[in-house]
Specification:
This is Outer membrane receptor proteins, mostly Fe transport. The chain has 807 residues and is mainly beta. Helices cover 10% and strands 38% of the residues. Among the domains are: 43 residues; 103 residues, Macroglobulin (MG2) domain (Immunoglobulin-like), CATH 2.60.40.1930; 88 residues, Sandwich (Immunoglobulin-like); 100 residues, Ferric Hydroxamate Uptake Protein, Chain A, domain 1 (Beta Complex). The protein contains eight helices and 48 strands.
């Protein structure tokens, strides 16, 4: 029997070995990549933010209107990770000019910056991000330059003689390396010192000075040429300058052997033509992987012998950037190429006005039709006067950013050019762009090893108040306790422990503007002596990166002298109901933070007091009787407990004092019904000099309570550093765009030189429906531009432009 059992075990072992042998290394590699992609998408996937704003130029004193779309980076659907969006305005010195904190609802947020009259003329950068996006670096933030004209704007200085800017010329062999003996396509990119494409024409020469091939840029300083490099040969590119001088640039070194990857995504509308070849003797098989939207869509094992020609159907890939990587069987990358896959959008938005030409101050009726079965986000609509808005040709839009520029490195000039039509010339230009720009997001090595970013920043679904408990010597109070008190419609108490750094955080808030909160700290044994509460302010300033959308200032000219923002526009509509937002907002899903009234000064007869104590200096009355907190706080005042939650006060042994609430006498028994957090301050009057105004009723002294009717007073430093009043910053308030109605006579005599005629971030259309909006033109004549942007719920960007005339 033992022999039979051993024989069975041996057979099972052999079967397991055979099964393991059937699993090839390529299968293991493929499954590993799939698993790591799934992990990245579920646990590490970043977000994308895109901002649609009304125009590229602004005047100091104008308003910058914008709408933000916050999306999952892979699916381009509304992100569920974040509920808080930051939008920063940064000047050219990397200084923060202004910051907005906005709530995100269904992947959307909107707001505005008021550009003050004293804002210096120059270039500014708009940066938008969530706290979660910080885990992946500023490179993935939305960053865009724009220009602000000062009140005394200057006309750009024009050089009397043309000066040729230094050229930066770079070469990019397709796939990554030049391999000897094989015809190779090399892309190039030429940039001026301002970061924009430079038109170039030149030739490639070998070591003997023999011209090998000529080249010329196709669009925006980019192009390509084909030549067969030779081993151990150095090649240079020569450019002729305007002054007759020649500038040389060295091409990358030539490898004697290697793998070659060539891709043609232009000539076949249905397929991507891939050619793979190896010049390495007796080389092993290779693997070709195609990844898009963080999914492994294509995989193929490549035979090392001969030339492999592969047709990959474009329909298998979603619209956008796809990354193809050629690796060995261990996963080491040998070549890589980016390809843009385009598909017609089945969801279309069309625009039409009731007329093509209008008079100044005439009503425009704009019809927006949506043909599509998928639900839309709210559309954002801007209408600007070309004469003043100076919208550049081929500017970026939601489609170009989400599908292209947000996924690759570096600035892309004239983004809209690549999407305007499907002609072959533009497809070739887009192909050159894919060959010269690098992948912006996670690299191949990180994907293969599963070495994902260290997640140091949590996703914020709501507002947080963060702080730290420290001792006098600066050391943290570990496992201490922080208590937050908030007086709103209800009285809110929140408790939390500090971590090993002494830090604490209160979350779950949703309010606008600033509200005062009281925060008290104690150590692990409940002691408040030698404990100091400090608030951790948000002092983060994002770094401006090269990936931002650059501002091309070469085209603007002096503006008309009468150009100015509408004076009513800057102040109209604070917190109006048109956007569905009110001042009162939900806190912790239940508590409503009410708007604060002006500071209220209650009635009182006396003009001075012997002692004044603000309640934010005092500990919490555990009994619920406010007299308890006065124990030991004022010289000559004795507070004694007479029963459960009952206390009695005596001033200098003179008997029962007179109790006042906002100047009205109350009984001692009613003190237990006063909420401590409804009281702003307590005034104690001890002797005849201060109590005389109250006559015989004040012979035992006076204890006057004054309710909290406005903002809290500043805390008295003598109260101790263990308790503070903090003005917590909430979401910024939203303003409504002012659009005059000239059917009435109000403001009719004022000049209307608005460059932004209409702005609306919340236009809602159902599938296969039509919506009409109306607005009036101003006094600016000429062509007017309508820009409509949005995204479908399944991640298809919508961008449409329409023009009409004002004569």
């Amino acid at each position: 029997m033992k022999v039979i059992k051993l024989l069975k075990i041996g057979l099972l072992f052999l079967a397991a070995l055979q099964l393991g042998a059937m699993i090839s290394p390529s299968d293991n590699l493929t499954e590993k990549i799939k698993a790591n992609l799934r992990s990245h998408q579920v646990y590490y996937s970043p977000e994308k933010v895109y901002l649609h704003h009304d125009k590229p130029y602004y005047l100091a004193g104008d308003t910058f209107w914008f709408k933000a779309y916050v999306l999952d980076a892979a699916k381009l659907e509304a992100s569920t990770k974040s509920g808080v969006l930051y939008v920063d305005l940064i000047d050219h010195n990397q200084q923060l000019v202004d910051r907005l904190t906005l709530p995100i609802a269904d992947g959307e947020a909107f707001g505005d910056f008021y550009l003050g009259d004293d804002l210096q003329e120059g270039k500014y950068t708009l940066v938008s991000y969530t706290n979660w996006m910080k885990n992946f670096g500023e490179d993935i933030f939305f960053q865009k330059d724009f220009y602000v004209l000062g009140k005394q704007f200057k006309k750009p200085v024009t050089a009397t003689e043309p000066v040729q800017s230094p050229i930066d010329l770079q070469f990019f062999p397709e796939g990554g390396d030049l391999v000897s003996g094989i015809p190779y396509e090399v892309a190039f990119k030429a940039l001026n010192s301002d970061g924009f494409g430079a038109s170039v024409e030149g030739a490639i020469y070998d070591e003997q000075g023999k011209m090998v091939v000529a080249f010329k840029d196709h669009f925006a300083g980019m192009g390509s040429f084909v030549f067969t490099p030779k081993a151990a040969t150095k090649y240079v590119a020569k450019l002729e300058k305007n002054n007759g001088e020649t500038e040389e640039f060295t091409l990358p070194e030539i490898k004697e052997q290697g793998w070659v990857l060539h891709m043609d995504e232009v000539n076949d509308p249905e397929n991507i033509l891939v050619t793979v070849q190896s010049t390495i003797p007796e080389s092993k098989s290779a693997m070709l992987f195609g990844i898009a939207r963080e999914k492994l869509i294509y995989t193929e094992e490549i035979d090392p012998s001969g030339t492999n020609t592969i047709f990959i159907p474009k329909k298998n890939f979603p619209i956008g950037v796809a990354r193809f990587t050629l690796t060995d069987l261990e996963g080491n990358a040998m070549a890589e190429r980016l390809v843009f896959v385009n598909h017609p959008n089945s969801n279309q938005v069309t625009l039409e006005t009731d007329q093509q030409e209008y008079q100044p101050r005439e009503e425009v009726n704009l019809a927006i039709r949506y043909q599509g079965e998928v639900e839309l986000s709210h559309l954002s609509v801007s209408v600007t006067a070309d004469q003043l808005a100076y919208t550049p040709e081929y500017q970026e839009n939601i489609s170009t950013y989400l599908l292209l520029s947000s996924d690759i490195n570096g600035h892309i000039e004239s983004l809209g050019y690549y999407f305007e039509s499907e002609d072959k010339s533009r497809q070739e230009a887009l192909r050159h762009l894919m060959m010269t720009q690098g992948w912006r997001r996670f690299g191949w090595d990180g994907l293969l090893s599963g070495n994902f970013p260290l997640m140091s920043f949590s996703n914020e679904l709501d507002l947080n108040i963060r702080g730290k408990l420290e001792r006098a010597n600066g050391s943290p109070v570990e496992q201490g306790e922080a208590t937050l008190f908030l007086k709103d419609k209800y009285t809110t108490f929140m408790l939390t422990e500090t971590d090993d750094k002494g830090e604490f955080s209160f979350g779950g808030f949703y309010f606008k503007g600033n509200i005062p909160v009281v925060i008290q700290g104690v150590d692990s044994r409940g002691r408040r002596d030698n404990v100091e509460v400090k608030i951790l302010e948000n002092d983060y300033i994002p770094k401006i990166t090269e990936n931002r959308i650059l501002f091309n200032g070469k085209t603007w000219t002096d503006l008309p002298k009468d150009f100015s923002p509408n004076p009513k526009q800057a102040t109209e509509g604070i917190e109006t109901g048109i956007w569905g937002l009110e001042l009162g907002e939900v806190l912790l899903q239940e508590v409503v933070v009410e708007g604060r009234a002006d500071v209220y000064e209650p009635f009182r007869l006396h003009t001075s007091a012997d002692a004044v104590i603000y309640t934010n200096q005092l500990p919490v009355a555990t009994s619920g009787n406010i007299l308890e907190v006065l124990q030991g706080r004022v010289a000559g005042l004795q507070v004694m407990q007479t029963g459960m939650n009952e206390f009695r006060a005596v001033i200098r042994g003179m008997g029962t004092p007179l109790y006042l609430l906002d100047g009205v006498p109350i009984t001692e028994n009613s003190l237990s019904m006063i909420n401590q957090f409804d009281i702003n301050r307590i005034e104690i009057l001890k002797g005849p000099g201060t109590t005389g105004i109250y006559g015989g009723r004040g012979s035992g002294g006076v204890i006057a309570f004054f309710s909290e009717m406005g903002t809290m007073e500043e805390i008295d430093p003598e109260g101790g550093k263990h308790i503070i009043v903090h003005q917590a910053a909430g979401f910024n308030r939203i303003r409504q765009f002012y659009s005059p109605k000239y059917e009435t006579t109000e403001y009719y005599e004022l000049p209307d030189r608005r460059s932004t005629v209409y702005w609306n971030p919340l236009v809602l259309l159902s599938p296969n429906s039509k919506r009409e909006i109306s607005f009036f033109t101003g006094d600016v004549t000429g062509r007017h531009r309508v820009q409509v942007e949005g995204i479908t719920k399944d991640g298809q960007p919508i961008s449409e432009v329409y023009y009409f005339e004002v004569n």
